């Protein structure tokens, strides 16, 4: 899909990988809507690239419906959805105090990363399948963001790994389901990237993390994630695939 002049929605677009994806797609000429639960962050990115900023809680159906309607009114039929919104968190199943992990901690991460992402997908997909097909029969593209933790989850990452593993498992059946409508689905599983969360760590910790990556021996750049997301949109043969973007990193147990 040529994104120039097309309507594109980026969730979690107010910071990190989402913000860089919004910048890259805007640079390529897409009509970008930046969705984020942090309205101020969304506005800052949108102002920078000439995009539309929309406050959106991906776990709330009405919030997503309103955001998609505003994006449609401003930019026309939705053609691409980049699901980058998500949260982290690490906690052992049984803590040092012998107490079990609160069930709410597990539910919260699953609800945002997996259920929230699917909530946006189902609503966006319904819009895409109603559009007129483009010249190659394609109607839309959906890209999700998992993590290498889906495959190499570390100690304390049970909830996070399960949420991202759910997105990995969702990719192929979703692609098969939407293939009849000309909508493609892929997922990116990034490794260690230099996002705002890692920026907060001491320099020596960042260097230690980078040293664990075979090559390139550095933390991933958000631009590299954005470039892959843009390539997935552009390459019509990419469908039903989960792509690790990690420099051959395999996470140790801890």
From TrEMBL:
Q: What is this protein called?
A: 3-hydroxyacyl-CoA dehydrogenase
PROSITE patterns referenced in this protein's UniProt entry, alphabetically: ADH_SHORT
| UniProt entry tagged with the keyword Oxidoreductase | yes
User: Which protein family is it in?
Assistant: Belongs to the short-chain dehydrogenases/reductases (SDR) family.
Q: Which UniProt keywords apply?
A: Oxidoreductase
Q: Which InterPro entries match?
A: KR_dom (IPR057326), NAD(P)-bd_dom_sf (IPR036291), Sc_DH/Rdtase_CS (IPR020904), SDR_fam (IPR002347)
**Entries under SMART domains matching the protein:** PKS_KR
Keyword field contains Lipid metabolism: no
Residues in Ketoreductase domain copies: 6-196
- Which GO MF term does the entry hold, naming one? oxidoreductase activity
């Amino acid at each position: 899909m040529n994104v120039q002049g097309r309507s594109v929605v980026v969730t979690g677009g107010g910071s990190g990988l989402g913000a860089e994806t919004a910048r890259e797609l805007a640079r390529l000429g897409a009509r970008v809507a930046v969705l984020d639960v942090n309205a101020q962050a969304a506005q800052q990115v949108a102002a920078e690239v000439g995009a539309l900023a929309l406050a959106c809680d991906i776990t709330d159906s009405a919030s997503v419906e309103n955001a998609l309607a505003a994006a449609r009114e401003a930019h026309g039929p939705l053609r691409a959805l980049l699901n980058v919104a998500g949260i982290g968190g690490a906690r052992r199943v049984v803590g040092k105090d012998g107490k079990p992990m609160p069930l709410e901690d597990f539910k919260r991460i699953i609800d945002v990363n997996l259920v929230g992402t699917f909530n946006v997908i189902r609503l966006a997909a319904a819009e895409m399948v109603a559009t007129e097909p483009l010249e190659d029969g394609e109607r839309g593209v959906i890209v999700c963001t998992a993590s290498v933790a889906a495959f190499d989850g570390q100690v304390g990452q049970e909830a996070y790994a399960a949420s991202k593993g759910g997105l990995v498992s969702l990719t192929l059946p979703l692609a098969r389901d939407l293939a009849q409508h000309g909508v493609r689905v892929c997922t990116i599983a990034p490794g260690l990237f230099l996002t705002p969360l890692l920026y907060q760590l001491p320099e020596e910790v960042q260097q230690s993390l980078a040293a664990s990556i075979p090559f390139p021996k550095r933390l991933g750049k958000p631009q590299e994630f954005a470039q892959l997301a843009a390539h997935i949109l552009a390459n019509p043969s990419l469908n039903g695939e989960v792509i690790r973007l990690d420099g051959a990193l395999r996470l140790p147990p801890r």
